[in-house]
Amino acid sequence: MSTTDLPLPTVRPAHAPPGVGHLRGTRPFPAEARESLQDTQLRRNLGKATGVIRAKRAAVVDEVPDWEALRLAGSAIKADVMARLPELLEELEAAVTARGGVVHWARDAAEANAIVLDLVRATGADEVVKVKSMATQETGLNEALAEGGVAAWETDLAELIVQLGDDRPSHILVPAIHRNRSEIREIFLREMPGVDPDLTDEPRRLAMAARAHLRRKFLSARVAVSGANFAVADSGTLSVVESEGNGRMCLTLPQTLITLMGVEKVVPTWSDLEVFLQLLPRSSTGERMNPYTSTWTGVTPGDGPQEFHLVLMDNGRSGVLADPDGRAALHCIRCSACLNVCPVYERAGGHAYGSVYPGPIGAVLSPLLTGITGGDDPNASLPYASSLCGACFDACPVRIDIPDLLVQQRAASVESHGRPTGQDVAMRAARIAMTSPGRFRAAEKGLGLGRALGGRSGRITALPWPASRWTSSRDVPVPPAETAREWFARTRPGRER
Amino acid sequence: MRIAVMATCLGDAVAPQAVRATVELLERLGHDVVFPPGQTCCGQMHVNTGYLREALPVVRHATEVFGPVADGEWDAVVAPSGSCTGCVRHQHAMVARRGGDEALAARAEAVAERTYELSELLVDVLGVTDVGAYYPHRVTYHPTCHSLRMLRVGDKPLQLLRAVRGLELVELPDAEVCCGFGGTFAIKNADTSTAMLADKMTAVLATGAEVCTAGDSSCLMHIGGGLGRLRTGVRTVHLAEVLASTEATQTPSARSLAAGVVAGAPRAERGDPPESADPLQEAPL
Predict the structure, then answer these.
(1) Where are the domains of chain B?
(2) 0.90 exceeded by pTM
(3) Size of the A and B interface in Cβ pairs below 8 Å
(4) Which ipTM score applies to this complex?
(5) Cis peptide leading into A466, omega within 30 of 0?
(6) What architecture is the B138-265 domain classified under in CATH?
């Protein structure tokens, strides 16, 4: 029996297709990071924001006596879901249909966007309100709707800031984390129709301005588009967790609700939510419980949206599922705890990753979804955007071994090289030296020539490329006159073993 | 105990003072230390850069060299490195399995079972926290990522440092944050690595310590390389060297490192123009 065959029509693409959505940037990570690191305001904004979230998360995680047991449970449920994803998705489809919803299957981002656009058009509406959603960011739905003549209004405060600022999200949970409040005030003053010109950067005043702006949209919109945090297979229930209540406005006021979700978001039963609704809020916003947890099942006559569509999207996920080394990346519940603890993310910022999924999980999920097309693929650089410090694994509420996934994706990156690179040649040479003590000692002798570079100072301050990338900011100790093995052999002759 | 020292490639070629200190410390504690001459490298650089195929023969070589510990010829293997110990324990079998060599994976696991990082060996295996060391300096300790999160050494190094006579231990702010080394990361993502290093150096300098110690020569080379470049007057010293120091011995490495780092060496020794060549006095172009 194969556990990786999804009930999708005929041809199943292994990877998310290029040219649609936002899973790949245009330049490799080091080039992007080099620029963003020079933005001192960004460094301050990110350092402050991630520091605050880290402290909040640590406090509310430490107070849970069975946190490690919850992590294990979350991991086990996700492993079970991946092992029988096809049957769970069919169960979900049947349950949603039985409760008056309509289920659509999208092989990739292009199909998902087309299905949503057609559904909106069928209602005659020319605008939609949106609940914060990573899946629709992944597919570039807003741009696809705009091309089809439909305006999409982001209603999550941070997504609204990003949208009004003609910006890109830089964090999974807090898409505008790279902005501080005075920058937000400027964006509102510039882009928000009818905004009070005396607006200050006081958080409450900013929130009031956004509320006044959004309320008009909530009351006029006939169609809402959402993602989903969870979908319960046996009841057909969808769930969104949020902080502001704007999502709930979208989920209850419009006549038509369209939910786009990645196929990995399904959980088997309602009681499985018990585990994730403890893990997710504490890991993401650092709250014991998020203020709004909405759940809906199909259509309820006379209450809420009277038309409900669920779009189940693959977009590379079945390919990841079929990869035994990468599959665990699908366990991610998009809490963003790994971003907040990552020293690389904190300094380089989310835009440097190119994909809507930044940070440690994004550095593996993005290349897994898109595949790596070669050494010059920007996503080939993402798995290297980590010092493998391991903070992400400790923070992950479902125990994804992100450092191991990073190493496996580095291997995928290396294997994508068409012709050998300089790095390939260097690694081969190192392997040759390191598999023979004689050759290794000869290489050490070569290294000893470096003594000439340092003179008597004991330090080398400049080396040619590529070692210059080290000496640009750090000295190198001069190689010692005697290696450890030479010292041991000289001082303890005959006692090597 | 009969203990084989795994010098690590970096320790052998670039930071032999930490290996020497490890040997001398264990001998002082009454153990018989051997140096398997065939040893080269654990293969971590290959593994962590994604060269799992190239890593396979390196792992095979390391497993052969340190195989006697699995047969009881030695009681333990010790490495003055958290990351190399972590590679042996958490990656060698993975590399072997991916390469389809199940027998090698099983052998590597048997070797890994008896391979320890220095503080683990001292505290867990030898059951000692006071090693009789004397080190009269203000010291801060940086817990390296792999010792902290791969090996979970916890406060073992701190237990050892607290028992050192004359040593004033000062807590490092944000100690658990990576220094930005990360092996080839420091070269491939030099800008991000340097940004991380800048923050680590700020934390080290805030302690007022004259010595920053850690269990990995690689991370120390990174932190020390930055501290030296900026002529901060703070030096990096491996945990093994601190523990090997006594009233009777001042390890030569500590002396030479101190001389090399504090306030920088005279310019002439770096091959720069002589001191008298004041750039402000030169004729304009």
Answers:
(1) 2-125, 138-265
(2) yes
(3) 238
(4) 0.94
(5) yes
(6) 3-Layer(aba) Sandwich (3.40)
